[in-house]
């Protein structure tokens, strides 16, 4: 029996064992397998290990997506992306300019195309903002799990978004997000007592400063050590 003689259900099952690149390669062999690749039912889980993977066309966004993870474990995150914009050199700004909008743009597509998302994990996404998180909360109303780790631009505004729009949220983690405060965490816990909210180290880290602030040298050194 040839592969294409299998029924649609069997082909979907076989495709489910392949990674994104392998699925894409197989879909290029014939029209029938291309249709299987484009079937939204195949894409209930997506995992990306760097923002550049979001540029590829080896996946499909659709209403079947339930679990989404974007994790970037790279020294570039600590040494470049996590630095406040006003402290970055022109070289660092140039590096960031090549990828800083990738995750935000991708999340905008998720908001439009994936209303049934249940779980969102983002780690090392140094350029996402509160607006990105709040948009997901507003559009993906079935979201149950939100995990943000080392997302330095996330502030208490995202926690306010959790309170306002996270009706079905069961668990929220904001780990190593330096601009989350203890006051913001406390307010979220008071407003949503049933929510499982954790924040490893977030409220203990040194938050961002503004250009006009006179930052003590000692504080600057402490921050450098945290990011090293």
Automatic annotation (TrEMBL):
It holds the Pfam family F-box-like. One of its GO terms (cellular component) is cytoplasm. SUPFAM superfamilies: RNI-like (SSF52047). Residues 9-48 form the F-box domain. InterPro entries: F-box_dom, F-box_LRR-repeat, Leu-rich_rpt_Cys-con_subtyp, LRR_dom_sf. This is F-box and leucine-rich repeat protein 22. It comes from Neolamprologus brichardi.
